[in-house]
Amino acid sequence: MQLFDVIIVGGGPCGLAAGIEAAKAGLSHLILEMGSLTESIRQYPRRMRFFSTAENIEIGGLPFPISGVKAGRDEALQYYRKAAAYYHLNFKLFQTVWDVQKEDGLFTVSTTTGEHYQARKVIMATGYFTRPRWLGIPGENLPHVSHYYDEPFKYSFTNVVIIGASNSAVEAALELYRHDVNITIVHRGEDFRSTVKYWLVPDVKNRVKEGKIKTVFDSVVTQIGEKTVTIDNLKTGEESHLPADFVLVLTGYIPDAELLRRCGVELDPVTQVPVYNKETFETTVPGLYVCGTVMAGIYTEKVFIENGREHAQSIIDHIMGREVHQVKELIQRI
Ligand SMILES: Cc1cc2nc3c(=O)[nH]c(=O)nc-3n(C[C@H](O)[C@H](O)[C@H](O)COP(=O)(O)OP(=O)(O)OC[C@H]3O[C@@H](n4cnc5c(N)ncnc54)[C@H](O)[C@@H]3O)c2cc1C
After folding, report:
1. Domain boundaries, the chain
2. Which atom of ligand 1 is nearest to the CA of 129?
């Protein structure tokens, strides 16, 4: 079995940034990715536009030239693919890592299909997008229910219920409404989330005022049927039903805590945030690091590409015994 200096689990922007820093430092590396390269971004809504400016999601010091200011999904996919090729990153795709165990100072990384790889250090960069937050209600696994929104044309001239009131829910609702979809947003809170991008707020609120997007606030969906959803009003206790040809459960995603636990990493039992050194990103397992959004636990809005890409340099500095790069606290996104 070939022994790598570093194995990186996850080929998203932050995992690729780690691969680039390892390559620059002359370390042999392998990136294991369960899907295609930058699989999470590939699964984003097809017409999404990043809220960050393109330069803020660059990796490896490579410029990200676009004609506008903020990149779209396809531009980002092109960019990260080119960055991976430019640095000759060594990756294996469609390899789902199941376990990482340390013995006699070396790590064995095992996949769900029984492959094993060995490394001196391991960087977990598995993000959060593979793990939707399930509501745990009857009917959630029916074929017309999805935890991901892709594109609008599938839904034109149908009734769609969106569960959730964050950015993903609002962006999907606006795009769907503009493609002749009858949209209802159901949310347990009394209004849209305060974290919704400020430039989306007037658009969605005005569409609600006009009655073009319907909202059912202070309410939860308790059951999904073939053609309807059942809703409970949290204030009045009243039960009602809404027609639903499709249901989009856009209630967020959460890093794979079980995988980290299996690898021996300690996590906060409530927040699921792994215990790690805030400067080096080393976990409670010496030589095992977290990089990017995987370290966020339930606070997924706190780590994104803009700050997550920087973890790579600090981790590789620590591995190389160099002075560790200090990751800046980001106050504002964009
Ligand atoms: C719609 C949307 C818009 C966004 N816009 C922005 C923005 O404008 N700016 C910004 O900075 N951030 C943005 N984000 C957040 C950002 O995309 C994520 O924070 C970012 O992808 C984190 O990068 P990552 O490398 O840590 O994780 P990911 O990109 O999620 O990569 C993790 C990778 O690990 C793989 N993986 C997972 N488990 C395993 C396993 N067991 N074995 C092998 N591989 C595995 C996954 O397939 C995935 O490819 C946005 C997110 C969404 C959903």
Report:
1. 3-131+253-320, 145-249
2. 30
Q: Is there an atom of ligand 1 within 6 Å of 109 CB?
A: no
pLDDT at residue 330 in the model: 58
CB distance 319 to 6 below 8 Å: yes
The answer, yes or no, to whether any atom of ligand 1 lies below 6 A from the CB of 127, is yes
According to DSSP, the β-strands at 145-146 and 246-249 are parallel
Residue 316 contacts residue 87 (beta carbons within 8 Å): no
Ligand 1 proximity of 166 Cβ (cutoff 6 Å): no
Which pLDDT value is given to residue 328?
78
116-124 vs 145-146, strand pairing mode:
unpaired
Quote the CA–CA distance of 53 and 152 in Å, as a whole number.
25
256 Cα to the center of ligand 1, angstroms: 12
Q: Which atom of ligand 1 lies at the shortest distance from residue 253's CA?
A: 53
Dist. CA 219–CA 235, nearest whole Å: 8
- Top CATH class of 3-131+253-320 equals alpha beta
Q: Topology of 145-249 in CATH?
A: FAD/NAD(P)-binding domain (3.50.50)
pLDDT of residue 331: 52
Instruction: Determine the pLDDT at residue 333.
Output: 45
Residues of the chain with confidence (pLDDT) below 70: 329-334
**C-alpha atoms less than 13 angstroms from C-alpha of 264 in its C-beta half-sphere:** 16
Q: State the chain's mean pLDDT as an integer.
A: 96
